[in-house]
Amino acid sequence: MRNAVCGSDGVSYISECLLDCQKDNGKNISIAYKGECMKLFAISFFCLLALTMAQKPCACHGDFDPVCGTDGISYPNYCSYMCAVENGKDLTIANEGSCMRLLIFLAIYLIGLLVFAAGQKGQLKPCECPILRKPVCGSDGETYPNTCALKCAAKIDKSRGLELSVKHPGECMRLLIFLAIYLIGLLVFAAGQKGQFKPCECPILRKPVCGSDGETYPNTCALKCAAKIDKSRGLELSVKHPGECKV
C-alpha cells in the first residue's frame, strides 16, 4: 500500500482519504505518520525489550579463562558463568576449563578408528609358499611341509603373542618316539611273560580236549601250556571233558 497512512488508533489505512472518511463518521483519529502502522515491529521491539530487561546485562571482561557448567556449556570465564547463574540458571561449576564431553567423545571415536585401522593392518595376508616337501619340525612339536609354511604359521602365532621357530630339519620325532616307546613296552612285556614260564614243548598229537574256557585244544599238553599263560593273568583253565567242545 504505497499511499497508506497509520492512524492514531494504530490502524493502517490504504489512503489518507479513507482515514478522513472514518473521521467524518465520527471517529476521533488523526494521521500518526505516513505508511503502514508498525504494529508487528512494535510488538517485536517490546518483546525484545522485555527479554533484555528479564536478563540482567553482565559487565564481563573479555578474558578467556573457561569454566564448564553442569549444564554442559563452556563459559568463556567465571564472570559469564555467574551471569548465567544470576539470570536464573540452576547450575554449578562442573570443572575448570572447557567442558570435555565433546572432546572425550571425539577422542574415544578417534582411538576406536585407530584401533580398527591397526587391526585391519595387522591382518595377515595368505602365505604364498611353494609346494615343496622338505619338512621341518617346529618348536611347537608340529611338522611343517617346508620352512615357508612354518614362517607363515609363525606370523599367525606372533599376532597371538606366541613364538614359533624351527626346532630341527626333518619331521618331528613325536610319532617316532611314541612308536619306540610302544615297541619297548611290548619287548618289556614279552620279557616279563618269558620270565614267568618256559615255552611249552608239546608233542604233535591229535587227541583233542575241551577246556573250561569253551575252547578245543589239540591235546592235554597244549591245554596245560595255555593254562600257565592264563594263570599268569589271574585266570584258571582246566579240562572240561575229553574230545572237542560241543557248540
From TrEMBL:
Record SMART domains: KAZAL (SM00280)
Keyword Cytoplasm attributed: no
Predominant localisation class: secreted
InterPro entries, sorted: Kazal_dom (IPR002350), Kazal_dom_sf (IPR036058), Spink4-like (IPR039932)
PROSITE patterns in the record: KAZAL_1 (PS00282), KAZAL_2 (PS51465)
GO cellular component: extracellular region
Compartments where found: Secreted
Record-annotated Kazal-like domain positions: 1-39, 48-101, 121-174, 194-247
Segments passing through the bilayer: 100-118, 175-192
PANTHER family attached to this UniProt entry: SERINE PROTEASE INHIBITOR KAZAL-TYPE 4, SERINE-TYPE ENDOPEPTIDASE INHIBITOR
Pfam families associated with the record: Kazal_1 (PF00050)
Protein name in UniProt: CG31704
Organism: Drosophila busckii (Fruit fly)
SUPFAM superfamilies (alphabetical): Kazal-type serine protease inhibitors
Tagged with keyword Disulfide bond: yes
UniProt entry keywords in alphabetical sequence: Disulfide bond, Membrane, Secreted, Transmembrane, Transmembrane helix
UniProt GO MF annotations: serine-type endopeptidase inhibitor activity
